[in-house]
Amino acid sequence: MSQKRANALEISTILEKLYPETPVPLDHKDAYTLLIAVLLSAQCTDARVNTITPLLFSKADNPYDMVKLTVEEIRNIIRPCGLSPRKSKAISELSEILIKKHKGEVPESFEFLEDLPGVGHKTASVVMAQAFGVPAFPVDTHIHRLAYRWKLTNGKNVDQTEKDLKRLYPKELWNKLHLQIIFFGREHCPARGHNPETCPICKKFGRKTLFK
To answer: Which DSSP state fits 62?
Structure first.
């Protein structure tokens, strides 16, 4: 076993001890509401999304009700999440597509999800992992930053980081591990004001020069 893989597995052991339970941080009740919540979370905190979705989902928690709302109505509700013109249009359009092509259901398909308006690979990965239990390793900028700090990737881009993490960890760990890394980052390894000497992982595995 390579040293990098050994370090990676030790990191996962630390994360498992700290976060044996990994509830999905975005409030949802099914694949559709998770898809909408993840779309809204782009450049917005999960906490803020969770303050917005109750009102949105009280009006429309399925594609059939969502298309009854105008794009303007959706935009007014989700405005605090930022990027509301683009997100509201995407929510309306993808809801129409789900009705026309899949009888209002979110399909268990990376290919289909990534073709939806406003849905990229990371969003599709979250839905596949957390709604359907399909092994995926969603990598956002936070996981990208931490993986670089911990010397698990060269930090070139999120795509490379995803490939590196998938090589280092067995598939059965992916879905839980991506959430554990997110939780750990929020509590112990923030982007700013981070003290590597007190961080349970960085003090042993972290780089001296941190990725910004």
So the answer is: S
CA–chain centroid gap for 188, Å, is 19
The domain locations on the chain are 3-22+137-205, 31-132
Nearest to 24 by CA among 137, 130, 108, 169: 130
pLDDT tens across 123-150, in order? 999 999 999 999 999 998 889 999 999 9
The pLDDT, as a whole number, for residue 211 is 45
For domain 31-132, is the CATH number 1.10.443.10?
no
Catalytic residues: 122, 140
C-alpha torsion sign, points 48, 184, 126, 134: negative
Output the six-digit token pair for 5: 């893989």
Residue by residue, DSSP assigns 131-155 as: HH--------HHHHHHHHHTTSS--
pLDDT digit string, tens, across residues 146-160: 999 999 998 789 999
Is the domain spanning 3-22+137-205 CATH 1.10.1370.40? The answer is no
Cβ atoms of 32 and 63 within 8 Å: the answer is yes
- Separation of alpha carbons 43 and 97, rounded Å: 24
pLDDT tens-place string over residues 112-123: 999 999 999 999
Structure tokens, 108: 């268990």
